[in-house]
Amino acid sequence: xxxxxxxxxxxxxxxxxxxxxxxxxxxxxxxxxxxxxxxxxxxxxxxxxxxxxxxxxxxxxxxxxxxxxxxxxxxxxxxxxxxxxxxxxxxxxxxxxxxxxxxxxxxxxxxxxxxxxxxxxxxxxxxxxxxxxxxxxxxxxxxxxxxxxxxxxxxxxxxxxxxxxxxxxxxxxxxxxxxxxxxxxxxxxxxxxxxxxxxxxxxxxxxxxxxxxxxxxxxxxxxxxxxxxxxxxxxxxxxxxxxxxxxxxxxxxxxxxxxxxxxxxxxxxxxxxxxxxxxxxxxxxxxxxxxxxxxxxxxxxxxxxxxxxxxxxxxxxxxxxxxxxxxxxxxxxxxxxxxxxxxxxxxxxxxxxxxxxxxxxxxxxxxxxxxxxxxxxxxxxxxxxxxxxxxxxxxxxxxxxxxxxxxxxxxxxxxxxxxxxxxxxxxxxxxxxxxxxxxxxxxxxxxxxxxxxxxxxxxxxxxxxxxxxxxxxxxxxxxxxxxxxxxxxxxxxxxxxxxxx
Length: 501
Ligand code: DHE
Prior knowledge:
Layout: H1 7-32, H2 36-48, H3 62-65, H4 70-79, H5 95-105, H6 117-123, E1 125-126, E2 146-151, E3 156-161, E4 166-172, E5 182-183, E6 189-193, E7 198-203, E8 208-214, E9 218-224, E10 230-237, E11 240-245, E12 251-256, E13 267-273, E14 278-283, E15 288-293, E16 299-302, E17 307-312, E18 318-323, E19 328-332, E20 337-342, E21 354-358, E22 361-366, E23 373-378, E24 384-389, E25 397-398, E26 405-408, E27 419-423, E28 429-433, E29 441-446, E30 452-457, E31 462-468, E32 474-480, E33 483-488, H7 489-493
Antiparallel strand pairs: 1-8, 2-3, 2-33, 3-4, 5-6, 6-7, 7-8, 9-10, 10-11, 11-12, 13-14, 14-15, 15-16, 17-18, 18-19, 19-20, 21-22, 22-23, 23-24, 25-26, 26-27, 27-28, 29-30, 30-31, 31-32
The protein binds heme D.
């Protein structure tokens, strides 16, 4: 039998084979190419919301993930988050799928996410109506010497008795609190903001949450009016300020953050200027600062540069601000104009500045995010009167009226495990402490009498380490889950010059 195939058939067969070969692999690739949107709907939407705005889990928008490094996001998708509902998906989604999902989560949704006044109102929950809880503490500790410790590891807050230096309570917070919690003047209530937009009101005397509301999708911080009536939140998504009634967090109004030319701006932060009975709003994308009298309409102060970081003097008359290029200026809020330039270098973290009296004159100092150097500025002449060389760039600087020292960290440097202690008169580094070698130590807050300094070992199995503020000896340590900031009721409500307000 002749098995030979005519050449014309060979050609036809070869063409058919080529066609199959060229179709099969591309069909296989198409089938295998990960579809991150589908993966999201299948695995993530139930907890994080169909629109990625959050639900039982946090929002998964690019803004919400800004602070998570690529490896950290990959690890969470792969392995989950311990002690939370977030499971790892390594067993269900292959590596290419997880990579595609991670990249997709960093991409803005096709339709810009919205969070309207109706959404804000619908999220409002009142757990305890105003006036329904006893007006006395349910514990014996001095309510003015309590500390709140924000534990970022598993999103909890611990309440410490500042006399016995022991925890008396611990509760779950919203995901990723940021910025200092703000106290009512009597120290009974404290207000928290989460990066995800939740504002929570906690009754410290009854150790319970009383109300919550979601004011936005990405929030910077909250401020509480000195008269106890208002809470104002600043958002980056949407670009708004949200005014709330402090008594139950009921919404009272939304102000769009728009500049004179109509340009929208993210809010950098909102501050309570108690001596002025107003809120001050720092804006991230336009050269303006707003002053909003309690219950009033905004007054716009035009600047010659966008200010990124802010420090207020004790009577809230002046703002010391730094622009993105590190240029510093002093704004007098009364006339609403620049009154001096500041000689700054590196990137001073003015928001973490403190003041004290040195040789009879008020001075201000703040850590520097780019340099191991602290500049000390005279608050009358605005001149730099000293510089202090430190171990490296740091984030926080803290002191107390009753201690001769200021404590700074170097958490942005290889020496992040060590705090340096500065003599406030000589401006010399006189000592240092290393609570846990190799582990980040930062953010100090003093007991109300200034006797003890509490330091965070900001790690997953970290601790609050208590030092005698005079002898600098360690007194005790309390294990905590990545404690970030800690806040003493007395120091905050009396607006101590050694800490933030
Ligand atoms: Fe903060 C306060 C801005 C990153 C921990 N931080 C503030 C405030 C502002 C601010 C404007 C004052 C608001 C207030 O207290 O009401 N922080 C910023 C940033 O712009 C920055 C650099 C980047 C960002 O994405 O927000 C930033 N901050 C961080 C961190 O990485 C820190 C160390 C860890 C974290 O939780 O994110 C951090 N910020 C803090 C803390 C305070 C704070 C602990 C309150 C300090 C205090 O003692 O009052």
